[in-house]
Write a structure and sequence with these properties.
Layout lengths: L13 E3 L25 E3 L4 E2 L3 E2 L6 E3 L8 E6 L3 E7 L5 E8 L5 H12 L6 E5 L23 H9 L5 E5 H12 L8 E6 L3 E7 L2 E2 L28 H6 L1 H14 L17 H9 L3 H25 L3 E5 L10 H11 L2 H5 L2 E4 L6 H15 L1 H15 L4
Parallel strand pairs: 6-9, 9-10, 11-14, 14-15
Antiparallel strand pairs: 1-10, 2-5, 3-4, 6-7, 7-8, 11-12, 12-13
């Protein structure tokens, strides 16, 4: 996918679309649309709020004149602990962003928050979700959100925003790679991978300009890469790679080492083991702590081995490392590449760039915006696809 193109293969297969002509936003539903939108497209209306009454912007929200070519889109990136929202113009410029903590919301409460953010999005909305989104069913499996084992998010959004609002849902992995290829460190690439390391580990994989999703839309769940042996029962819930090298995984490994080494009295011994986090491990590493150094040295090897496997499988132009851990782990990019060269197919790895994300925590928002803009650009194709998905998901007669 070239930057600025609208390739059919990029569009999320779970499109929630039945699009009629774009019309003016209802002022009563424009709460998420902030005053950062260029004034030449807008006129002011009364401010509104969502969620637990928190204001969405410090200045009055705006509704939009009916100019489809420049109508902004809403981008929504749902995580395990917060919901981020942004407004993008038709050219891909981020105009405004904010976020709302989930604050213990579960099940339908989280879905209601997503739906509220979609209200009034007659320009279109893209939603990225953590976990797995089987497009045929329109449901989400998100282990970090209680009650989302198979949550019917597509139907929930349709019931709230109505049939005339184009909303596209996809996994956060797909959003990350779409965002980086569109406006980030992989800009313009057709073969690229986003390796996300945070609370969990996953990969957004683009092959020949198309996001690879797999038979059940589970493609990219690389937390389950088998990178160590023997098998341990602890790997069952999250996978070997994620157990050792995600943010919580770093803390687990550190706790194991602390329990084994009774003679250690370094920085991490001062911390309650249950309060250990990746952030504390990086801070101890910066002070030369022995166990923190061992934990992160091992993680570098795991990140490199995973990248090497991805290089050998997919022959990408670029691998982008992102998520909350990269961040502080971006300092290890040279070491990761050096180690990956030892393991990967030798020709492919020398042709692959290893880079840190340019979009950082906004990668999912850019990907969600890209989904919305692509859906709007190809409305007939998306409408046909949504109809096809509905037919596939309908019960047999």
């Amino acid at each position: 996918m070239q930057a600025g193109s609208a390739g059919r293969g990029e569009i999320g297969r779970g499109a929630v679309v039945n699009v009629s002509a774009l019309v003016q936003l209802s002022p009563a539903r424009s709460g998420v649309l902030a005053s950062a939108v260029p004034h030449t497209y807008t006129r002011a209306v009364a401010p509104t709020t969502i969620g637990a009454g928190e204001p969405l912007a410090t200045s009055p929200p705006l509704s939009f004149d009916p100019v489809p070519a420049v109508m902004p889109v809403i981008a929504i990136d749902l995580g395990g602990t917060k919901l981020a929202t942004a407004i993008f113009d038709a050219g891909g410029t981020l105009l405004h962003r904010d976020s709302v903590p989930l604050d213990g919301r579960t099940g339908s409460e989280v879905a209601a928050l997503v739906a509220q953010r979609c209200e009034g999005a007659t320009g279109g909305a893209g939603v990225t979700v953590p976990g797995i989104y089987p497009a045929v069913r329109g449901t989400v499996w998100a282990p970090n959100i209680p009650g989302w084992d198979d949550y019917p998010l597509r139907d929930e959004l349709r019931s709230v925003v109505g049939p005339d609002t184009p909303v596209v849902i996809d996994s956060d992995r797909a959003g990350y790679i779409l965002g980086e290829v569109w406006r980030g460190a992989a800009r313009g690439a057709r073969h690229a991978i986003f390796l996300a390391v945070g609370t969990g580990i996953g990969a957004g994989i683009m092959v020949d300009g198309r996001v690879l999703r797999g038979h059940g839309d589970i493609g990219g769940a690389i937390g389950w890469l088998a990178l160590d042996r023997p098998y341990r029962e602890e790997y069952r819930s999250c996978g070997c790679f994620e157990y050792h090298a995600s943010g919580p995984g770093l803390a687990k490994v550190a706790r194991e080492r602390l329990a084994r080494d009774r003679n250690y009295n370094g920085e991490l011994r001062k911390v309650d083991p249950l309060a250990l986090t990746a952030e504390r491990i990086f801070a101890a590493y910066d002070k030369g702590d022995a166990i923190a150094t061992e934990v992160l040295d091992d993680a570098v090897t795991f990140w490199a081995m995973a990248a090497a496997n991805l290089v050998s499988l997919f022959n990408p132009e670029v691998i982008v490392f992102g998520g909350g851990v990269f961040g502080p782990a971006a300092r290890f990019m040279d070491r990761i590449q050096e180690e990956a060269i030892r393991w990967a197919q030798p020709i492919a790895v020398t042709e692959t760039r290893f880079v840190a994300s340019k979009l950082g925590g906004d990668a999912g928002l850019y990907g969600a915006a890209r989904l919305a803009l692509l859906a709007r650009a190809e409305m007939p194709a998306v409408r046909k696809e949504a109809k096809h998905n509905d037919a596939r998901s309908a019960p047999p007669k």
